[in-house]
């Protein structure tokens, strides 16, 4: 089973993967980085994680940022879709202090790189979104809203467990709710993409505060994103999504899920 998520260090970028691992192991915490036990396909070779190695529980799980077009086939896929403005701001915060010197690049300048292909798997937000939207009715694809992961984790836990074929009882539900809370993840922040970050960045950790568990609320871009960038994202949505697919905006897409 592969968990697909829009990139960024916000709280729920990690929550889907951690939710799955908690469900299949009933709360295993014996690891230093979640990517060791739920391998990230694109970075596995770089950090020395064997994708074919045995895993701790069934079903096997992997993380990826790839579009449906390029992801390895033969799995079940859980995909969380996020407002492009929030996804953009989240990616910016992930890269600053990781690969970018803090204060070196403004949001406006960073947008120029993001719009040319930054985002999931380096393939760009729009290609990624359209590829998964096209297969949303396939029985091995489960599309979730990032906002729902924030607002109603219990419902998402139940859907994920059912989709993955994991028996869910009240004890496991309560445990998964506790373990995927922001408070718990902040308390155990070292488990969530910290140990492997220097390897992924070839040792370049440029002032990263290690806080890979950020608030990540729905619509949090509104307090940060410049109006000029928001307007450009709206224009791209119109061209890439609204006109060809008939979906006016991301809220309309969420409602269709």
Give a structural overview:
There is one protein chain. The protein has a four-stranded parallel β-sheet, sandwiched between helices. With about 260 residues, it is an alpha/beta fold. The radius of gyration is 17 Å and the shape is globular. It has one domain (about 1-255): P-loop containing nucleotide triphosphate hydrolases (Rossmann fold, 3-Layer(aba) Sandwich), CATH 3.40.50.300. Helix 1 packs antiparallel against helix 9. The protein has helices at about 10-25, 35, 45, 85-95, 105-115, 125-135, 145-150, 155-165, 170-180, 180-185, 195-200, 225-245, 250-255; strands at about 1-5, 60-65, 75-80, 140-145. This is Sulfotransferase domain-containing protein.
Write a brief structural summary.
By secondary structure, the protein is an alpha/beta fold. The chain has 13 helices and four strands.
What's the layout of helices and strands?
Elements: E1 2-5, H1 11-25, H2 34-37, H3 44-47, E2 62-64, E3 77-81, H4 84-95, H5 107-115, H6 125-133, E4 141-145, H7 146-151, H8 153-164, H9 170-179, H10 182-187, H11 197-200, H12 227-245, H13 250-256
Parallel strand pairs: 1-2, 1-3, 3-4
Helix pairs in contact: 1-9
């Amino acid at each position: 089973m592969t968990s697909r998520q829009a990139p960024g260090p916000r709280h729920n970028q990690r929550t889907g993967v951690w939710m799955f691992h908690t469900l299949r192991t009933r709360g295993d915490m014996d690891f230093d980085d979640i990517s060791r036990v739920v391998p990230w396909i694109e970075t596995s070779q770089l950090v020395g994680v064997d994708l074919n190695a045995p895993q701790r529980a069934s079903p096997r799980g992997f993380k990826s940022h790839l579009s449906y077009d390029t992801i390895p086939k033969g799995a079940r896929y859980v995909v969380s879709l996020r407002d492009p403005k929030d996804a953009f701001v989240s990616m910016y915060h992930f890269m600053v202090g990781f690969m970018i010197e803090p204060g070196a690049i403004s949001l406006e300048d960073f947008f120029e790189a993001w719009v040319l292909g930054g985002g999931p798997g380096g393939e760009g937000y729009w290609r990624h979104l359209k590829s998964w939207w096209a297969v949303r009715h396939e029985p091995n694809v489960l599309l979730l809203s990032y906002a729902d992961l924030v607002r109603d984790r219990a419902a998402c836990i139940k859907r994920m467990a059912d989709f993955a074929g994991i028996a869910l009882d009240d004890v496991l539900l309560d445990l998964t709710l506790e373990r995927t809370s922001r408070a718990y993840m902040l308390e155990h922040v070292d488990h969530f993409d910290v140990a492997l970050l220097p390897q992924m960045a070839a040792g370049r950790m440029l002032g990263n505060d290690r806080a890979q568990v950020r608030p990540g609320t729905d619509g949090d871009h509104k307090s940060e994103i410049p109006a000029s960038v928001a307007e450009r994202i709206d224009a791209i949505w119109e061209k890439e999504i609204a006109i060809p697919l008939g979906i006016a905006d991301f809220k309309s897409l969420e409602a269709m899920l």
